[in-house]
């Protein structure tokens, strides 16, 4: 970072602009207090074009129909298969210990 007084920047503006374009960070100061920073210009990003891929995608006629009932049979049965054991009683469970 290079700190330059505004009075000196007036005299050497073209040189300072070249340095900033080259990547050097230059801060302009007034009475030793930083005021502004010279940075290289960067072009704004190009605006997006909506619909750029319109008409290029396709879907099969049966893409939204399931070939088999994958979820229906599981919803009719129990949530857990087999015996479910209760956790052992302990000080964290809130139950009185024997």
Provide an overview of this structure:
This protein is 20% helix and 15% strand. The chain has a domain at 2-38. It has three helices and three strands. Strands 1-2-3 form a three-stranded mixed β-sheet.
Provide a brief overview of the structure.
With 98 residues, the chain is of the alpha+beta class. The chain has helices at residues 6-11, 13-21, 72-76; strands at 2-5, 26-30, 33-38. Helix content is 20%, strand content 15%.
Q: How is the biggest beta sheet arranged? A: 3 strands, mixed
CA distance, first residue to last residue: 73 Å
**What is the count of β-strands?**
3
Q: Into which percentage range does the β-strand content fall?
A: 15-25%
Instruction: Order the strands across the largest sheet as they lie in space.
Output: 1-2-3
- Number of helix segments? 3
- Uncertain ranges: none
> How would you classify the helix and strand content by structural class?
alpha+beta
> What is the subunit arrangement here?
single chain
Proportion in helices: 10-25%
What's the alpha carbon Rg, rounded to whole Å?
35 Å
Order of helices and strands: EHHEEH
Indicate the mean pLDDT.
Answer: 82
Question: Shape from CA axes?
Answer: elongated
């Amino acid at each position: 970072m290079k700190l330059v007084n505004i009075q000196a920047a007036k005299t050497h503006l073209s040189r300072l602009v070249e340095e900033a374009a080259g990547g050097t960070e230059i801060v302009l100061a007034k009475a030793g207090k930083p005021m502004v920073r010279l940075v290289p210009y960067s072009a704004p990003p190009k605006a997006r074009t909506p619909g750029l891929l319109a008409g290029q995608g396709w879907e099969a006629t049966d893409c939204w129909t399931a070939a088999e009932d994958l979820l229906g049979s599981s919803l009719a049965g129990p949530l857990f298969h087999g015996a479910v054991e209760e956790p052992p009683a302990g000080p964290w469970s809130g139950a009185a210990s024997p």
